Amino acid sequence: MKYGELPVVRLSARRNSLHPWIFQKMVKPPKERLAPGTLVTVVTESGEFVGRGIYNPVGGIGVRILTELESERLDRDFFSSRLRAAKHLREDILAIPEQSDSYRLVHGEGDGLSGLIVDKYADVLVIEPYSAGYVRVADWLAEGLRELYPGCRVAVRPDARQAEREGVSQECEMLARRYPAPDSVTIRENTMRLKIDFKSGHKTGYFLDQRDNRREIAGLVKGRTVLDLFCYTGAFSISAALAGASSVTGVDLDEKALKTAAENSRLNGVKPAFLQENVFDHLRKRAEQKDQANLVIVDPSKLAGVRDEISRAKRTYGDLNRLAMKVVKPGGLLLTCSCSGLISEPDFLSILTRAAAEAGVLFQAFRVTGAAPDHPVSSNFPEGRYLKAVFARILPGSERRIVSEEKRPRI
User: Fold this and answer.
1) Burial 382-404 (b: 16+ CB within 10 A, else e)
2) Which domain covers residue 305, as residue numbers?
């Protein structure tokens, strides 16, 4: 066969970009039925080589390109090579093990493996397949990881909704049973020790992307009162307490996460106060009581996962930050974050600017960061830079608010 042993998929339109996603409308339906996740060779309508990748007739992304080199085969050695390159970046170039024994080993398109997440937690390697193709090659991935980390434990934790969209729900359930995660593991991050609860934790178990921002916060909190909103399992709260904050309060609605947060506090010998409350209700109560903090952290989960959710997410970010700014003491600090990749950094900063005007304060941003460097962004996939973390000082502003709060609908 001219293109090797893989089935051939033809494009119906000219590909004018190097983006790794080729959408369904650009792909000709193959004559023979191919299962979701089939590895394929992609050619133009006239038969010229385009690349090799993962084909899926289900959903909007028809092909995820993994290589554009005709000499490169999609075999076990290919995936092992990509895993080695990812490890080299984290360990030999970024030297992350000096800070932590846990990091993102594979960041999807940023590491040339579109649709794949692999997170390392101490000796546990967690695979999260966002594409059906990695369900097909899971054994290759597991073998490659065990070669890189002898003695490690490999777990597969698929996202149920994504597995359904990819058409591989049943296969993912079987994989999760074959590669189960332990109940928990304890990791080291900066000055902290943290328990990762795989039974009830979000995503692969923990939000590694905020590691450097937690370290930055530790340098700002000494002697300050800290309010940590959407505190999840307490990493920001514990980091602040260890760094000398005068008091720390974490707020979250997730009872199981708060239980883990309390365990993590005991592991580190600190005593933040954790409250199980709706963050919006908590902020309104604080504002009414004029109960302010020197430093407020706002780190909600993703508010816009698809384009239809963008408008509502923008309104929610605006309302949330308006309320948060009102409970920062004049001259105090705010760290506010968005992990919604569909909302750009300029749009998020614009939302914050308006929120400040509505709150009657001045918002003085002094640092804008993103995810830790183990979440690299490739030039052919700029949307991989999803996290925005804005450090700011909140100063007294105009008493004239641009929108009457009484007219705003409550979340």
Assistant:
1) eebbbbbbbbbbbeebeeeeeee
2) 195-407
Residues 247 and 299 in one domain: yes
Residue 200 token pair: 């009830």
Q: Do 155 and 278 have their domain in common?
A: no
- CATH number, domain containing residue 163: 3.30.750.80
Output the tens digit of pLDDT for each of the chain's 411 residues: 455 589 999 999 989 899 999 999 999 999 899 999 999 999 999 999 999 999 999 989 999 999 999 999 999 999 999 999 999 999 999 999 999 999 999 999 999 999 999 999 999 999 999 999 999 999 999 999 999 999 999 999 999 989 999 999 999 999 999 999 999 999 999 999 999 988 876 665 689 999 999 999 999 999 999 999 999 999 999 999 999 999 999 999 999 999 999 999 999 999 999 999 999 999 999 999 999 999 999 999 999 988 999 999 999 999 999 999 999 999 999 999 999 999 999 999 999 999 999 999 999 999 999 999 999 999 999 989 999 999 999 999 865 555 544 445 554
CA neighbor of 15 nearest in space, from 58, 55, 63? 63
The count of structural domains within the chain is 3
Together in a domain, 61 and 110: no
Q: Are residues 216 and 151 in the same domain?
A: no
- Domain of 379, CATH number, reads 3.40.50.150
Q: CA-CA distances (angstroms) from residue 128 to 5, 159, 165, 185? A: 27, 7, 15, 17
